[in-house]
Amino acid sequence: MSRPTRARTALTTGALCALLVAGCGTVPDLPGPMPDSVVPTRGSGSVPDETGFLSPDGFDAARRMAVRVRNVGCEGVIRGTGFAVGERLLITNKHVVEGNQDLQLSTYDGRDVSVTASESADLADLAVIRTATDLDTFPQLAPEDPEPGDSVTVVGYPNGGALTVTKGTVIEYTSDPLNVTLGQVLLTDASVEPGSSGSAALDSAGQVIGIVYAKSSDDLSYLVPVSTLQELLADDSGFVEQEPLTC
Questions:
Q1: Are the CB atoms for 231 and 238 separated by under 8 Å?
Q2: In the annotation, is 236 catalytic?
Q3: CA nearest neighbour of 108 among 153, 191, 165
Q4: pLDDT, tens digit, 9 for 90 and up, residues 139-177
Q5: Would you say the pTM of this structure is higher than 0.85?
Q6: Is 125 annotated in the active site?
Q7: 10, 130 in Cβ contact below 8 A?
Q8: What is the CATH number of domain 66-138+232-239?
Q9: Domain limits of the chain?
Q10: Which of 108, 179, 212, 235 is 20–30 Å from 124 (CA)?
């Protein structure tokens, strides 16, 4: 597969640093601890107008496997998204779960999911979260990475709110501008916002082709390709358990 290495110059270092801190956003600093009464941990359950490139059945499965992630740390709150890859296994970004005192998960229909452990990868901006109860459904991982020009649908919870679906196209393969992921990453024009980090990027068949981890200053999104996730999941040492912080 041909993978051009041309990097996007529109991506700025300052925006990227802020992006990581805020969970795929551009807020410069984390807020202080926020009361549950004003932080959405459960959505309204409304169905998005858009279903991207997914069939009705594919969209229904996608919304049931997508999970809100709320990382309560010593410095504040980070919001992100995760998605199931097994009955009790979620994938998200490493920067979404790092420095947590308490990880809180909730599903599309408002059900809380208890966390038993979180583990981070050393070679990519990826993490796994293990749950105490079974998750509703999980998608298949695509057998290979997508080609430039392929369609992509991103399913996640921007800003910790209601489920959102955006669609776009894979533009190219490029070097990771953040230098946090080994190898090349995908650049797409699917829109993402704060809280989208860790969202699954799906092809038209509903298979995972990548994981959102960053956005550029010109509103393009960066994905860890599915091949990187598959390699890490196949390696027993690919993820290292994190201990929750004590503030």
A1: yes
A2: no
A3: 165
A4: 899 999 999 999 999 999 998 888 999 999 999 999 998
A5: no
A6: yes
A7: no
A8: 2.40.10.10
A9: 66-138+232-239
A10: 108
